[in-house]
Specification:
This protein is α+β, with helices and mostly antiparallel strands. Strands 1, 2, 3, 4, 5, 6 and 7 form a seven-stranded antiparallel β-sheet that branches. Helix 6 crosses helix 10.
């Protein structure tokens, strides 16, 4: 792996600069309200792969909106949520937005057709798998036009980590404590250059797959700065508030 090839894995687009995207995770429940591995059945109904997808845990659903302008985000979140509510009635499942699932919840892994999840789980200690299945959250993406802008925005955003963790906390810190079991290196570091970022990726083992970087703020392969510290919530206004704060931080970095 070379620095040039590493850089090529990140899909920055000038037209995507400062557009906003949101990924929301929730637990799926059966008719009695108990968390259950229903993702395969639910996604057989929610067939748009852009808006709906799976997570490692078969008890979770991920919904996605964007990229869009910040002014369009609230409407996009509402439209997406309406589709899931319709699926709830048609399929007969529920959603739970608690940030941390119970310790005895099912640990079924989604049958990822690429086989990536099976490979991940094969190397995971049981307690790490449990931690990965128990925590859910909301991820905010802010689009970047190019590599240098992304590095500048990322470095700037790291100064706001503690503020954002507090802003997004809905479990008195429990979610992030459990997340740290899965990702001990969750705190992002600043990098002086893309070469320094690449060297860190090599030493930490995510140079060939940047998705294996589990820091709470990261430069994403989607061409964004991704903020991963926010908990799960059914409150769309709260999500829009989180996204606006992330947008403002990145906008200021690029000004």
């Amino acid at each position: 792996m070379s620095l040039q090839r590493f850089r090529s894995r990140f899909g920055f687009r000038p037209e995507g600069a400062l557009l906003v995207g949101v990924e929301r995770e929730c637990f799926l429940t059966d008719a009695s309200g108990v968390i259950a591995p229903l993702a395969t059945r639910v996604l057989a109904h929610l067939t748009d792969p852009v808006q709906f997808g799976y997570e490692l845990s078969a008890c979770q659903l991920e919904t996605r909106v964007g990229p869009c302008r910040p002014s369009e985000l609230a409407a996009a979140l509402a439209a997406n949520d309406t589709q899931v509510v319709s699926a709830e009635h048609a399929v007969g499942f529920g959603r739970l937005h608690c940030e941390v699932g119970p310790a005895d919840m099912p640990l079924d892994v989604y049958p990822d057709p690429t086989g990536r999840y099976a490979q991940i789980v094969a190397a995971l200690p049981h307690e790490v798998l449990r931690a990965a299945c128990r925590v859910i959250g909301t991820h905010v993406h802010i689009g970047m036009p190019d590599h240098e802008a992304a590095l500048a925005a990322y470095n700037h955003a790291t100064a706001y980590l503690d503020e954002l963790c507090e802003l997004g906390d809905g479990s008195a810190g429990e979610r992030l404590r459990i997340y740290a079991v899965m990702a001990p290196g969750w705190r992002p570091s600043r990098f002086a250059s893309w070469h320094a970022f690449y060297e860190a990726a090599v030493s930490r083992g995510f140079d060939s797959d940047p998705r294996k970087c589990w820091t709470l703020i990261r430069i994403s392969v989607h061409g964004t700065i991704e903020f991963r510290m926010f908990g799960a919530t059914g409150d769309l206004n709260r999500i829009a508030h989180w996204a606006k704060r992330c947008y403002d931080i990145c906008r200021d970095a690029l000004a």
